[in-house]
């Protein structure tokens, strides 16, 4: 981008005042959101109606509870739910930056404001999920399409009015909002497809799909695979399957994991863009400072006492800017690889729990509390995204520091014609480390050759732990005691350095604890991961779900068979009789044979039921 073009875009953005305020629109979007929720709640039937003395009895069986999605056992429409989560990315980043300030409250009450902000964001995007999961496909698809279209139109209007920005110049707003526009476009297409298909079913042009089974197909395939004999020789796997990932047709990730990963990807992208905007702002300030330093050097005619220091400061600023930009890509690729690796670890850990293997977990996490696990599954998705974002920032800082070390230890000395000195220092350092490691290896060789007794058997892999040449061993131990004190200092520093590097490098990995053994409970992120695994293990275990499916289908078949034989003793059990008609026929027979039950029968709100009861009362009186 040309500099003058960027400056012109920034000036246009400074003078641009859009008519659409996305934060204000978020508040107003609660009105249609609540209306859609009320409509879906009215259509949702309640399973248990209240008694007559309860005021909610007047509502009948309407106004049931509407759920956005099943966070535990939903395996259908996974990518639709994931894209719906992606549509909330801009609002989530708005909350993450703590930019939600509708009220002026003290600092100690800031947590309550953020809680209200999270509820408001969830309520404003609730129709996306509720319309995808509703059983009333035609109405929900029309409502979902309309609501998605409103969000899409307002977002496009906001972008077109002020497309440029102060930091990135031209089309800065597009860079921020294109993921949300893409997700909203997908939702528009999804709701349009749902409405067309539901309309065809309603008009009778297409058969209605069968009711969703309690047992998922991949869960049934997993159980079948367990019951089969394992093959004597497995097929040859490719390098990708062996080293990276192998697709398993008997396993599917739940909608929660897909939505978490999609939202984490988009939030990571937005976080990188925001970070780059902050970098542009800081770079502008540094450029101003650099200009002032240059004017100072020019005024002193490069002869002042502070001139060398000023030149070093200018060099540090230039190197820092270059290193920060150069490490954006490796830091982002590291976090992206973590997201894929977390999915792979989820599948691996779930399969181990299904097999009854808990040895990969620390001892304190092998029997977690039920309440803690339920809370953990609610925390996991949000914490995973926050860990990825903060992990990216920490990894970026660490990689930038390593880049500065490499620049000042290798690159800059070579640029300043000090390559021989660098090679000399590097050679001495490598030689020193080689001697230290060589002495440590020699100690091990001496212990193995002179201070251990011979192998008991020829097939033994190593010598037994039995001392030999004890007097020589005691002298060996005594003289190396003082040397190992100095060697231990270096080992201690290396331990600290390695712990810091690994801790910062793995900070975004919520599936792996970075605490020492015995202190794993202090890692709240890992606790949320383990609790989430246990909830999924207890509710989506294929063997358990298959067993419950067999019980439910068997009980249903037995009830159907008994009812058919009772109502039609001369017919076979395989006759196709409507369960509703059969129930009403048995009810009619019971009430005719027992007229006293008519008065005690619970009244219904339906008009047909009242007429039916009145006819029975009249017939019983006559």
Automatic annotation (TrEMBL):
It is a multi-pass membrane protein. One of its GO terms (cellular component) is plasma membrane. GO terms for molecular function: retinol transmembrane transporter activity; signaling receptor activity. The chain crosses the membrane at residues 25-43, 108-130, 142-161, 173-193, 261-282, 323-344, 389-411, 423-446, 481-508. Keywords: Cell membrane, Membrane, Receptor, Transmembrane, Transmembrane helix, Transport. GO terms for biological process: vitamin A import into cell. Its main location: membrane. The keyword Membrane applies. It holds the Pfam family RBP_receptor. It is found in: Cell membrane. InterPro entries: STRA6-like. This is Stimulated by retinoic acid gene 6 protein-like isoform X3. It comes from Phyllostomus discolor (pale spear-nosed bat).
């Amino acid at each position: 981008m040309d500099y003058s073009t960027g400056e012109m875009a920034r000036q246009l953005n400074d003078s641009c005042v859009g008519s659409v305020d996305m934060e204000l629109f978020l508040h107003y979007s609660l009105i249609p959101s609540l209306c859609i929720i009320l409509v879906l709640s009215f259509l949702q039937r309640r399973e248990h109606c209240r008694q007559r003395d309860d005021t909610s009895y007047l509502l009948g069986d309407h106004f049931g509870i509407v759920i956005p999605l099943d966070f535990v056992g939903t395996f259908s429409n996974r990518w639709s739910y994931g894209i719906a989560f992606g549509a909330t990315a801009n609002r989530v980043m708005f909350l993450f930056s703590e930019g939600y300030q509708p009220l002026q409250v003290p600092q100690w009450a800031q947590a309550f404001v953020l809680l209200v902000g999270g509820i408001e964001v969830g309520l404003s995007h609730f129709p996306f999920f509720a319309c995808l999961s509703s059983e009333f496909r035609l109405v929900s698809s029309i409502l979902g399409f309309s609501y998605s279209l409103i969000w899409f139109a307002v977002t496009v209007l906001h972008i077109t009015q002020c497309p440029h920005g102060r930091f990135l110049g031209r089309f800065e707003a597009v860079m921020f909002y294109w993921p949300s526009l893409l997700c909203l476009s997908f939702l528009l297409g999804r709701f349009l497809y749902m409405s067309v298909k539901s309309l065809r079913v309603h008009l009778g042009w297409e058969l209605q799909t069968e009711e969703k089974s309690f047992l998922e197909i991949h869960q049934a395939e997993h159980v079948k695979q367990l019951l089969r004999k394992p093959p004597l020789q497995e097929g040859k796997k490719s390098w990708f399957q062996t080293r990276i990932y192998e697709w398993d047709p008997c396993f599917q990730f739940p909608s929660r994991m897909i939505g978490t990963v999609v939202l984490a990807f988009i939030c990571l992208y937005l976080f990188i863009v925001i970070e780059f905007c902050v970098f542009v702002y800081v770079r502008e300030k540094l450029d101003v400072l650099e200009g002032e330093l240059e004017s100072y050097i020019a005024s002193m005619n490069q002869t002042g006492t502070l001139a060398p220091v000023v030149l070093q400061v200018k060099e540090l600023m230039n190197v820092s800017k270059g290193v920060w930009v150069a490490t954006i890509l490796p830091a982002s690729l590291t976090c992206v690889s973590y997201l894929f690796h977390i999915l792979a670890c989820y599948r691996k850990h779930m399969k181990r729990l299904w097999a009854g293997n808990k040895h990969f977990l620390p001892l304190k996490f092998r029997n977690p509390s039920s309440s803690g696990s339920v809370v953990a599954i609610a925390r996991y998705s949000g914490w995973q995204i926050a860990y990825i974002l903060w992990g990216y920032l920490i990894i970026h800082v660490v990689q930038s520091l390593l880049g500065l070390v490499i620049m000042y230890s290798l690159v800059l000395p070579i640029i300043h014609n000090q390559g021989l000195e660098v090679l000399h220092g590097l050679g001495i350092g490598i030689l020193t480390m080689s001697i230290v490691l060589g002495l440590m290896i020699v100690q091990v060789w001496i212990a193995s050759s002179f201070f251990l007794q011979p192998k008991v058997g020829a097939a033994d892999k190593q010598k037994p732990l039995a001392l030999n040449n004890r007097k020589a061993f005691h002298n060996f131990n005594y003289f190396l005691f003082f040397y190992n004190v100095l060697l231990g200092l270096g080992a201690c520093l290396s331990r600290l350095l390695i712990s810091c590097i690994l801790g910062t490098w793995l900070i975004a990995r919520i599936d792996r604890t970075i605490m020492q053994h015995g202190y794993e409970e202090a890692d709240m992120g890992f606790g949320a991961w383990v609790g989430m695994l246990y909830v999924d293990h207890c509710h989506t275990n294929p063997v358990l779900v298959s067993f419950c499916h067999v019980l439910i289908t068997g009980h249903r078949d037995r009830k159907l068979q008994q009812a058919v034989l009772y109502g039609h003793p001369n017919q076979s059990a395989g006759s196709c009789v409507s369960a509703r008609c059969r129930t009403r026929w048995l009810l009619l027979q019971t009430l005719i044979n027992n007229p006293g039950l008519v008065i005690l029968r619970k009244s219904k709100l339906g008009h047909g039921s009242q007429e039916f009861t009145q006819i029975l009362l009249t017939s019983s009186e006559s």
